[in-house]
Amino acid sequence: MSEYQKQYKQQYYRENKIVSFPLKNPYFEELKRRSILYDISTNTYAKNLVTNSLNQDTISLISNEKKEYISKYIHISRGIANNINQIAHKTNIESTVDIKVLIKSLQHYEDEFKKFINNI
Questions:
Q1: Alpha-carbon dihedral angle through residues 33, 39, 45, 48, given to the nearest 10 degrees
Q2: Sign of the CA dihedral running 99, 102, 104, 107
Q3: How far apart, in whole angstroms, are the C-alpha atoms of residue 22 and residue 20?
Q4: Is residue 71 located within the same domain as residue 34?
Q5: Which of 56, 67, 81, 105 is most buried, by CB atoms within 10 Å?
Q6: Interval 61-87: pLDDT, tens
Q7: Last residue of a domain, which of 15, 32, 55?
Q8: Over the stretch 34-45, which tens digit does the pLDDT of each residue have?
Q9: 100 neighbors 107 (Cβ within 8 angstroms)
Q10: Which domain, by its residues, includes 74?
């Protein structure tokens, strides 16, 4: 082992501690199952759980399924916000707003939200 490697290893062990403990098989399998949901290794998932808990971190792990759910929610919400912005703009330039178009548009987004919520 080179001198550089020895120094690196010594510094690493001064700055980091390795934690290991036995875990009953059912608990390990659950830990492994959850880590797969986040597409990370079991050890990385366990490390994140511990460090988040110790830091009382408000940022939690989010599964890919939940990320997709949030992304769809944001997409629908932006569509609604965009329509409201267009209506406000037309109103500000004293252009008439077709109430039928407005109601149809809002109904469309309401229907999208209903479909979205029912698919959860």
A1: -140
A2: negative
A3: 7
A4: no
A5: 105
A6: 677 777 788 788 888 778 777 877 777
A7: 55
A8: 999 888 999 999
A9: no
A10: 64-118
